[in-house]
Amino acid sequence: MNPFSYARPTETGTAIKTQAKESQAFFLAGGTNLIDLMKMGVVNPSTLIDINRLPLKGIEPHAGGLRLGALATNSEVADHPAVLKDYPLLSLAFNAGASPQLRNMATVGGNLMQRTRCSYFFDLTMPCNKREPGSGCGAIDGINRMHALFGASDKCIAVNPSDMSVALAALDATVRVRGGAGERAIPFHEFHRLPGDQPELDNTLRKGELITAVDLPPAVFTKNVYYLKVRDRTSYAFALVSVAAALDLDTAGRIRDVRLAMGGVAHKPWRLYKAEDFLKHKAATAENFRAAAAIAMEGAKAYRYNQFKLRLAPNTILEALTKAAGTNTPS
Ligand SMILES: Cc1cc2nc3c(=O)[nH]c(=O)nc-3n(C[C@H](O)[C@H](O)[C@H](O)COP(=O)(O)OP(=O)(O)OC[C@H]3O[C@@H](n4cnc5c(N)ncnc54)[C@H](O)[C@@H]3O)c2cc1C
Ligand code: SF4
User: Fold this and answer.
1) Where exactly are the structural domains of the chain?
2) Residue closest by Cα to atom 35 of ligand 1
């Protein structure tokens, strides 16, 4: 047992100041990730700043869209009437993650910040550049079945495990944060980062910054959406590959707008911009969906044990788009 201090501030400013002061001070939200990491010795906080008394739980209309407080739980967001009506993709993604018990505890902010599930990251006897910079990467020549196809580096090939974040990437959400220097808004695609030479950094949050909310833009994709998560078992398990697909179709079945993002394939939720551009203003047909999936896979690089993802990923894109369009099984 490592000793640590515990604080439970009621003011956001106090929480931020306390965290900024110590290099190993961590915010504690639902605790479903952080406490596990502490038990395994992967992180050893000097101070836990329990943020559950801060007023960050609300889910409310904002600027034509919806603001999700950082402390709203995964279940509260997934079941919220405005989310079910206007952002059904997000609800589907939440409900594909973890278990009901975990979703009742896990928060929006904690979900954004959850660490990778690379097994070497959790194994203190193995090298891991993310856990201990400069120690090496156990996964590159190890069992890398769950690992990345896109955007990896020679320092780290881990993937981001969050289902929620795949939907938020597709929906172009914004992460609102507050630190000593004030507030800032981070476009979702800039929040998580690729590993590069600093795999220890999962995201662009600065020391002393607290996530206060996630903003969803005005709703567009209210109908033709699907979140398809392929995993080893249907009980709780992390994605091998997941796809968030959202289509805005006109009455003739042509695609006015489309959003596509993948999970389980990169260090950050992986937006499929080129495939989206290909699909815009085309008919929602299996042929076009298949071509988009092929475009999405350009530049994919597999490792020894995750070669199967090279076929699984485009098939998952095709299936998700087909389900989103409300058409039958792809032919
Ligand atoms: C058995 C199991 C199965 C799971 N399966 C899935 C799954 O299938 N899909 C999925 O997406 N997730 C899954 N999860 C992960 C789960 O979603 C995360 O553990 C959860 O979302 C973390 O939220 P939390 O509030 O508990 O965070 P905490 O554990 O409290 O915190 C996690 C991290 O976030 C930081 N943090 C928390 N709030 C803030 C804030 N407001 N600002 C800045 N930093 C903050 C903390 O300091 C900490 O570093 C699973 C977890 C478990 C244990
Ligand atoms: S892939 Fe990343 S998290 Fe996994 S062992 Fe390598 S450096 Fe660590």
Assistant:
1) 5-52, 224-325
2) 110
- Nearest ligand to the C-alpha of residue 200? 2
Point out which residues pair with 50 in neighbouring strands.
28
Q: Averaged over 233-246, what is the pLDDT?
A: 95
Mean pLDDT of 300-324: 98
Fold of 224-325: Enolase-like; domain 1 (3.30.390)
Atom of ligand 1 nearest to the CA of 71: 41
Contact yes or no for 262/165 (Cβ under 8 A)? no
Question: What is the model's pLDDT at position 1?
Answer: 73
Half-sphere exposure in the Cβ direction for 253 (13 Å, CA): 9
For ligand 1, say whether the CB of 210 is within 6 Å of any of its atoms. Answer: yes
Total count of residues recorded for the chain: 331
Give CATH for domain 5-52: 3.30.43.10
| 36 CA closest ligand 1 atom index | 53
